């Protein structure tokens, strides 16, 4: 059965991968970010969330802010060396590596996510079922429960959530057609060692990003 979840927050940053140093957000939430919110509420190895539609309820507004970031990354080989008792693992200290960077973010966002889940039978127990998963998600979402607090792109922009109330469809913030260009869809994990990023041509129709019939490509 389909799930309909309302999410909202003060700011959001769905980073466009074509920009390197400065972070610039997409105009609307990406499908992978929506799936991440659903996983935060209820994740199980026996299911995989599929996002069908994203209803954009608030007008698209941008803010330019500056954020403190570190300019280094931890190297896996140094972590292994530390585990073997050699060195400090390439520790990163914010006081030494901090940099201020500009970010173009969204403000005052509100979406409704339409989604369903697919069962992964080889990762389910004998007592698992679609009805069981559905009931668990509805119960957790209605009580505000989550494995970790969901967020809009980065953890400093938390997302509030609740089940969509009522039988009426959400009303998008605008009528008509709006092209959004190519947008990140999700990763293809068939090769777990080298996940393949997937993209699609995104557009809003009456404030709705419809993902059921999009053509996805790498």
From TrEMBL:
Any GO BP: maintenance of CRISPR repeat elements
Keywords attached to this entry: Antiviral defense, Endonuclease, Hydrolase, Nuclease, RNA-binding
InterPro entries given in the database record: CRISPR-assoc_prot_Cas5 (IPR021124), CRISPR-assoc_prot_Cas5_N (IPR013422), CRISPR-assoc_prot_Cas5d (IPR010155)
Pfam families named in the record: Cas_Cas5d
E.C. code: 3.1.-.-
CDD domains: Cas5_I-C
GO molecular function: endonuclease activity; hydrolase activity; RNA binding
Similarity comment: Belongs to the CRISPR-associated protein Cas5 family. Subtype I-C/Dvulg subfamily.
Role description: CRISPR (clustered regularly interspaced short palindromic repeat) is an adaptive immune system that provides protection against mobile genetic elements (viruses, transposable elements and conjugative plasmids). CRISPR clusters contain spacers, sequences complementary to antecedent mobile elements, and target invading nucleic acids. CRISPR clusters are transcribed and processed into CRISPR RNA (crRNA).
NCBIfam families in the record: cas_Cas5d (TIGR01876), CRISPR_cas5 (TIGR02593)
Protein name (Swiss-Prot/TrEMBL): pre-crRNA processing endonuclease
Organism whose genome encodes this protein: Bifidobacterium simiarum
């Amino acid at each position: 059965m389909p799930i309909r979840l309302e999410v909202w927050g003060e700011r959001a940053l769905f980073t466009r991968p074509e920009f390197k140093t400065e972070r610039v957000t997409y105009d609307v939430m990406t499908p992978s970010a929506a799936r991440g919110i659903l996983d935060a509420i209820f994740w199980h190895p026996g299911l995989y969330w599929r996002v069908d539609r994203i209803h954009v309820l608030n007008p698209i507004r941008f803010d330019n802010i500056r954020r403190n970031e570190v300019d280094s990354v931890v190297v896996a080989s140094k972590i292994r060396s530390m585990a073997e008792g050699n060195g400090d693992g390439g520790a990163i200290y914010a006081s030494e590596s901090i940099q201020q960077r500009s970010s173009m973010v969204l403000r005052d966002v509100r979406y409704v996510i339409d989604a369903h889940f697919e069962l992964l039978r080889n990762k389910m127990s004998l007592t698992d079922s679609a009805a069981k998963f559905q009931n668990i998600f509805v119960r957790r979402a209605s009580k505000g429960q989550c494995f970790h607090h969901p967020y809009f792109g980065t953890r400093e922009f938390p997302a509030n959530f609740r089940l969509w109330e009522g039988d009426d469809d959400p009303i998008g913030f605008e009528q008509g057609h709006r092209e959004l260009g190519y947008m990140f869809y999700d990763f293809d994990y068939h090769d777990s060692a080298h996940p393949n990023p997937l993209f699609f041509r995104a557009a809003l129709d009456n404030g709705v990003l419809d993902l059921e019939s999009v053509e996805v490509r790498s």
